[in-house]
């Protein structure tokens, strides 16, 4: 059984851009979201994945499966209406970890979120100056919630 151990932060400023090593465009939609469980389909280039995430904040159960890109495109178009988003993901390595900085598009334009996956919940983490307020436990900033939002959360 797989776990995702992840912390998330709102990003301040543009200083993170100087250390970006990889950039990719993501489209994702939510097939289901109930009782803290979400089922997501994501397309990144020619690759597609189906992801099931359990409830939780810092530590959650996560199952991921490669799926045919054509199936993913059909799911996004036919099953995710009103529950999808687009973002550009930038990878920023720091202290042996990879921070993923997501710049959201469309109705969420202006929202920039950084997340970092940790090898353990108690793993020491140096938070860079450009990572502002932590939002790990704020459900308004979960991608599953953002996919249905008409604007970025306030506050």
SSE inventory with pairings:
Elements: E1 3-11, E2 22-34, E3 37-44, E4 47-53, E5 59-66, H1 69-79, E6 84-94, E7 97-104, E8 112-117, E9 131-134, H2 143-146
Antiparallel strand pairs: 1-5, 1-8, 1-9, 2-3, 2-6, 3-4, 4-5, 6-7, 7-8
Domain CYTH: 2-148
InterPro entries: CYTH-like_dom_sf, CYTH_domain, NeuTTM/CthTTM-like
Pfam families: CYTH (PF01928)
Give an overview of the whole structure.
The protein is mainly beta. The protein contains two helices and nine strands. The protein has an eight-stranded antiparallel barrel. The longest helix has 11 residues, at 69-79.
What descriptive keywords fit this protein?
single chain, 155 residues, mainly beta, Hypothetical Protein Pfu-838710-001, 8-stranded antiparallel beta barrel, 2 helices, 10% helix, 48% strand
How would you briefly describe this protein structure?
The protein is mainly beta. The chain contains two helices and nine strands.
**% residues in beta strands:** over 45%
Structural class estimated from helices and strands: mainly beta
The side-by-side strand order for the widest beta sheet comes to 1-5-4-3-2-6-7-8
Question: Would you identify the regions where 5 or more consecutive residues have pLDDT less than 50?
Answer: none
> For the terminal residues, how far apart are their CA atoms?
35 Å
* Annotated CATH topology: Hypothetical Protein Pfu-838710-001
The string of secondary-structure elements, in order, is EEEEEHEEEEH
The helix tally amounts to 2
How many strands, which pairing sense, and closed or not: the largest β-sheet?
8 strands, antiparallel, barrel
**Topology, number of strands:** 9
Mean pLDDT level: 96
Radius of gyration over C-alpha positions, nearest whole angstrom: 15 Å
Count of individual domains: 1
| Named CATH architecture | Beta Barrel
Going by CATH, the homologous superfamily would be Hypothetical Protein Pfu-838710-001
Specify the overall morphology: globular
What percent of residues adopt helix (DSSP H or I)?
A: under 10%
CATH class, anyone? Answer: Mainly Beta
Protein name: CYTH domain-containing protein
InterPro entries: CYTH-like_dom_sf, CYTH_domain, NeuTTM/CthTTM-like
Domain CYTH: 2-148
Pfam families: CYTH
């Amino acid at each position: 059984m797989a776990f995702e151990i992840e912390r998330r932060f709102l990003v301040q400023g543009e200083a993170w851009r100087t250390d970006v090593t990889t950039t990719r465009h993501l489209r994702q939609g939510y097939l289901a979201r109930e009782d803290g469980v979400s089922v997501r389909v994501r397309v990144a280039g020619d690759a597609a994945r189906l992801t099931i995430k359990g409830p939780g904040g810092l530590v959650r159960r996560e199952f991921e499966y490669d799926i045919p890109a054509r199936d993913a495109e059909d799911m996004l178009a036919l099953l995710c209406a009103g529950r999808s988003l687009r973002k550009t993901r930038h990878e920023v390595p720091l202290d042996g970890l990879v921070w993923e900085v997501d710049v959201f598009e469309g109705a969420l334009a202006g929202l920039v979120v950084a997340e970092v996956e940790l090898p353990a919940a108690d793993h020491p983490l140096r938070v860079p100056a450009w990572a502002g307020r932590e939002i790990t436990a704020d459900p308004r900033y979960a991608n599953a919630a953002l996919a249905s939002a008409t604007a970025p959360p306030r506050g």
